[in-house]
Amino acid sequence: MPTSNTPARQIRKVAVLGAGTMGSRIAAHIANAGVPVVLLDIVPPGTAADAPKAVRDKIVLGALDGLKKAKPAAFYTADSARLLTLGNFEDDLALIADCDWIIEVVAENLDIKHALLERVQQHRRPGTILTTNTSGIPIASIAAGLSDEAKPHFFGTHFFNPPRYMRLLEIIPAAATDAADVATVAHFCDQRLGKAVVRSHDTPNFIANRIGTFSMGNAIRLMMAQGLSIEEVDTLTGSALGWPKTGTFRLGDLVGVDVLAHVATNFSAQAASIHDERQDVALAPFIAKMLENKWLGDKTQQGFYKKAGRDEQGRDQRDFLDWQTLEYKPSTRPKFPAIEMAKNVEQTGARIAQLLHADPSHDRAAAFYWPLLTELFTYAANRVPEIADNIVEIDTAMKTGFNWELGPFEMMDAAGVRATTEKMRTAGLPIAANVEKLLAYPHALSEPGPTWYKDDPTTPSGRQYFDPVSSSYKPVPVAEGVSSLAVIKKQRGVVRKNAGASVVDLGNGVAAIEFHSKMNALGDDIVNLITQTLKPGSQQVADFEAFVITGDAANFSVGANLMQLLLTVQEEEWDEVELAVRAFQNMTQVIKFCPRPVVVAPYGMCLGGGVEISLHAAARQPHAELYMGLVEAGVGLIPGGGGCKEMVLRSIEAGSSIRPDARGEGVEIFEALKKNFETIAKATVSTSAAEARGLGFLRPSDSITINRERLLTDAKLKARVLADAGYAAPVPRTDIPAPGENALATLKLAVWTMREGQYISDHDAKVANWVAYALCGGAVTPGTPVSEQYLLDLEREAFLSLCGEKKTQERIAFTLKTGKPLRN
């Protein structure tokens, strides 16, 4: 559900009532946005009225402690916790009086919700927005006990767990809900919480859980009918379909078997009120037995799977439950010929088409996929307009609430609507009425139809969708400020490109450089395109006033192309290695000294060389979920593209200047230098953009975008602001005061101490000493003025020396094979 302009009402303070797993994490994420939160829960039963406040707040204090220890982290940084005000319903409910939005997140029990909301109305300021976070209780039922004044300001806001990472927010209005209040919350959750907001009708389980429950229940039914194992079904329902690699049952363990059972039971209780072709969603007998045994998933250490130690590479091993005997069996890592063939198909849509239309008589995978997907397509098509106004809301809900790469209607397009439907007719399967409407639509011969979606570069979203209610195509709605390079390329084309990167005209005098290598690894193609585009005198520098480096992929960049490096090193082509490092350094210098401002907008994983690109930009506009780190030490190297040089400069900025103390050391700069040395030597990676700022990778002036879909627009705006302010490129420095030999000796002593304590290996120590050498400017007198090029030369010397080490080569090979670091 898109939002547009800023609403008149602002949300400046929020109350969250209920500090359980969901409520506490909603509160934590609102605090991540910099908004104060009142978090309340019950007084522990049996607690005396005159007990100390800490005793009466025991439940909410325990929730805060859990938030601080949560993995994955609930807070962007530990400092976010200061925005939480804790209390209990008995003593502190009056605190909600100055809150702009009150969210009820207590147990999924209508009587409990009614009892609390009755008390809330005694303290709530008239006009305050009041919502309930329920996964399926009818909103109308919860609203029934509210006053006439409160009802217009009440509706459902269904967050998905964990709220920081799951982007979906379902908003479910009640009959009397004020549309302006819905717009206020939608705007806040979009811009401040990074949510994909969809509007759901007040029907059982709303959108995502309705479709997700059907899909999961169907997978279980097919598993039992076809004699498949839990492990086999997880292989079939994982990344091959563009679904989370956990598959059906491993995801169930993460969510909680009891939670899944509650959602299914909740639907069964309401099914009589609706028309649904699958009203019988009774729990499978083996799941009922699991609930009886308290095998609830990860929170009870066993569910569909149970941990069975670790393998030689340190990966968790799990035994899977035999659903027929209720005994656990060792993993067999099942393989299916159809999936093995599909691994060669990179695009998810094409892979789905191949899997769906494979011959089911020759492969158990194909026999499973045909009913799984065709029944999903029919079920989803039959839900419009029952659960949502259009297909876009359903696809968005499944992509952002269940992490499907494609929604069910996008999957049907990929499989081929006509081809799939014809096969279904031949097999005597029912065809959804809405699908028949799509097939009957008069598509032009030039169109690929019938398809639920079709490209339309004239619309802001770049797409139209088929609306079965009106039997017409409509623009896919998109909020103002939401953009993507994929859409802009349809509208404007590409200025220049090679195999690794492209230059795209964003309009208004700004161009974007986008990477599109595998995992956006930085190879020669990307280095050459950036250098040729941004160097003084290039055609692009003449044509554009500012640049943005970003993309639409899952990750900004995993760093340098290690495979390319390893092959060159193994061939002992040392001149080529040195030329490649010089070229990379030249690229980062071109970014830094480009006569036009360059804004880097990193997101996802931004590692190694990706960080070095960011460090050299005029400014950065990161996405909040940023995993950023100079990780070269993990493969036995040091940053060689200017990363060490830029961290030296940041150390000097942090220390102001070198003021020698009695020992001849710059105390201020050394503390900053030591911190940056540890960050590089330990290959520390941030778990958020806020943490990346604390590590020194981002500057205080670098603002953070919380909604991933707004990153490109925000970065473009920042680049435009820099250009309009009369941007002047910095001048290469030749007066950098080197920390020198005293700082180097101190850092080397710290490395020696770590090695003596057997905390690190000999090779770790060697790498760390090279990091210290590069950061200190070598063994020179403290304060000796050196140039940026001098520091780059030191980096290159260290990098090349470590490339020649056998243990470094072993580390690179191991990481390429396993994706993990080797500590040899």
TrEMBL record:
It catalyses: a (3S)-3-hydroxyacyl-CoA + NAD(+) = a 3-oxoacyl-CoA + NADH + H(+). GO terms for biological process: fatty acid metabolic process. CDD domains: crotonase-like. Residues 512-644 form the Enoyl-CoA hydratase/isomerase domain. It comes from Granulicella arctica. It comes from the Bacteria. The lineage of its organism: Bacteria, Pseudomonadati, Acidobacteriota, Terriglobia, Terriglobales. One of its GO terms (molecular function) is NAD+ binding. Keywords: NAD, Oxidoreductase. This is 3-hydroxyacyl-CoA dehydrogenase. Its EC number is 1.1.1.35.
